[in-house]
Amino acid sequence: MDRIGIVGTRHRFDESDISRGKDGILHYMVGDNTLVELLANSAARNANKIALRELNGRSVDYSELLKLVEEVAGGLRHRGVSPGDRVGIRLSNGIDWVVSFFAIAFAGAVVVPINTRLAPAEVEFITEDSGLAYLFLPNEELPRGDSYRFSEATRETLAGILYTSGTTGRPKGAMLSNENFVSNVETVKRVVPIESHDLMSLVAVPLFHVTGLNAQMLPTIAMGGTLVLMETFDINVFIDSIETYNIDTLVAVPAIYWFALNQPSFEGVDTSSVKYVLYGGAPMPPDLVPKMMGAFPNARLGNGFGLTETSSIATFLPHEFAKEHPESVGFASPVTEVDLAEVDPVTGVGELMIRGANVAMGYWNLDLATKNSFGQGWFKSGDMARISDEGLIEIVDRRKDMVNRGGENVYCVEVENVLAEFVGVLEVAVIGVPDEMMGEKVGAVVVPVPGVDFDPAAMVAFARSRLADYKVPQYVWVKKDPLPRNAGGKVLKPNLRSDAKWGVAIF
């Protein structure tokens, strides 16, 4: 099925800016070619504008940001980092995070953002798997040296490795090229009609994820806007910052908006400055959309859908469709083609396939996984979807066994592998537990070894020592009977979801 025609009817763009390459993929023919160009060009246009502002009062303008980045790039080179080396960032949101990100690119290296919530064992795996040559850590001075700018990178050069939770229990590093990063920037410019670069964007989501990094940080810097950076998320600080800084652009997962709108302090906040309320990363509760429209009366809403492997935005639901189609993730973005594989003739549901200049190069050091998920420019998303005649895409299920906890993807097998190591666990299955705010929380169904005095709290404590906190089960159902399985031995998780007896959350 040809899905290209969907693009032109819903998203603002000049068709002359887009061309199909020899690889059969649509590419932007305008904009920056690399991350180095993106910052350098924006700094030249916006030298004296504030680029980054922390809530503690520290700020830098674009000329200062560029100078810092070049000096830290020189510091990396002085410490032996060479072009192509991988360099990690394990910092909280802040000016140092942004400087580190661009400094890695200016040094010619490959950025590896690391989730600050990961357990030590998870960080150790990423460090070893990627072969980090250097790691930015909290409470350490940024390395400084003579100004340096690597100028030999191309659009095809590997620029970043972003790790996702793995379906086999190990994280997978999605390899993003310079074009992947800058292509997403161009997409944001087109699907979010920001006419002026005088934007003030509140960063409330982690920069180590593609939502904060690709859908917010990079487009804002490319357009010469200001990023107001929250080091860690605090709902009251989030609410107060909207009025304090005259924020005009918000990007968050639905759970954050739900949480904000349900705070007593929100009622007195002046939200008139907000022009854009963008969301994604998790399903949107239908009744939340009209509430958000009422809470932000001057704002346009928009739902962006994508994955780490698609550099963030693959589809976008514009404001005009948000209220009537809250269940939809919108239309294909300008350089993205979508299709369905193995479509059920009755339901019209198939696996969502995505192709475009935004699709990652593959998985780091995982040839088989790359072969299974990527081919001829297409990425198999693992999401089951249907596409309406007018091009609206609706995600109806997941082919991958995953819990979406407020925008954080938790692959069940990863958690199951850890829980299975706890003494006294005979069988275990991890599934999502419905939650009004987070959408889902992690639940574990455990069948203990007969005769063992099984302690659910001790198992959860064991998991907390091995997994990031958001992956640790908050609910445990101790089941006496064996887990239900089909003839092939596969656990019937739909049966568990319908029969689950969760009781009170453990934490």
Automatic annotation (TrEMBL):
- Locate the AMP-dependent synthetase/ligase domain: which residues? 40-364
Q: Which InterPro entries match?
A: AMP-bd_C (IPR025110), AMP-bd_C_sf (IPR045851), AMP-binding_CS (IPR020845), AMP-dep_synth/lig_dom (IPR000873), ANL_N_sf (IPR042099), ATP-dep_AMP-bd_enzyme (IPR050237)
Reported EC number(s) for this entry are 6.2.1.3
Q: Which GO terms describe its molecular function?
A: long-chain fatty acid-CoA ligase activity
Q: Which UniProt keywords apply?
A: Ligase
Q: Pinpoint the AMP-binding enzyme C-terminal domain residues.
A: 414-490
State the name under which the record lists this protein: Long-chain-fatty-acid--CoA ligase FadD13
What is the protein's species of origin? Acidithrix ferrooxidans
List the taxonomic lineage: Bacteria, Bacillati, Actinomycetota, Acidimicrobiia, Acidimicrobiales
